[in-house]
Amino acid sequence: MKVVAFVPIKLNSQRLANKNLLPLKGHPLCWHICNTLRQVNLIDEVYVYCSNADIKQYIPADVSFLKRDSWLDGDTVKGFDIYKSFISEVDADVYILAHTTSPFIKKETINDSLQHILNGENDSAFSAKRIQTFAWYDNKPINYDPNDVPRTQDMEPVWEETSGFYIFKKEIFTEHHRRIGFMPYIAEVKGAEAVDIDEKEDYEIACLYADKEESDE
Hints:
Layout: E1 3-8, E2 23-24, E3 27-28, H1 29-37, E4 45-50, E5 64-67, H2 79-89, E6 94-98, H3 107-118, E7 124-131, E8 136-137, E9 140-141, E10 158-169, H4 170-174, E11 184-188, H5 200-216
Parallel strand pairs: 1-4, 1-6, 4-5, 7-11
Antiparallel strand pairs: 2-3, 6-10, 7-10, 8-9
């Protein structure tokens, strides 16, 4: 089965200026996930999908650049349109969609998740944080009965997608228009691996993790 990984990148970011080029551990933020993907032996090709060729100077030399239409950089454009455009240009049996905002995702986590799909156990996989505490939505509890409050260790966990990566068979997207299928594998991530940089505070937390990793080396 052909496995292709792609990283959508735009150089204009709304919430955190120049986010993808911010420095982290001696490299731009966008470099890290690309470097991780290129180390996963089961991946046949790794692409950066960006409208600006300048991005090539910020990513590993052996990661392929594929130019996308500039309209896909619009602030109101949905991720689905970007993924659809890439998949229409690059054929594969399995796609790995990864994001620059999760720079600490480990190659072992991606490899293990991919194995679940290649072995036929699951049709998709995604990174997520386990939330095992009292959670509410729309003014209602979603994971416990307030008339019979359980111990937190006995609760069913709620999973929060980190957007670090999504892995899916081609037909999951082309036939069902989804990036998570019907039999997904949830790859639990914790600590630095769970970092998802959207705001300035997220970047500051990432820098703290990076400083800790360097001090531990």
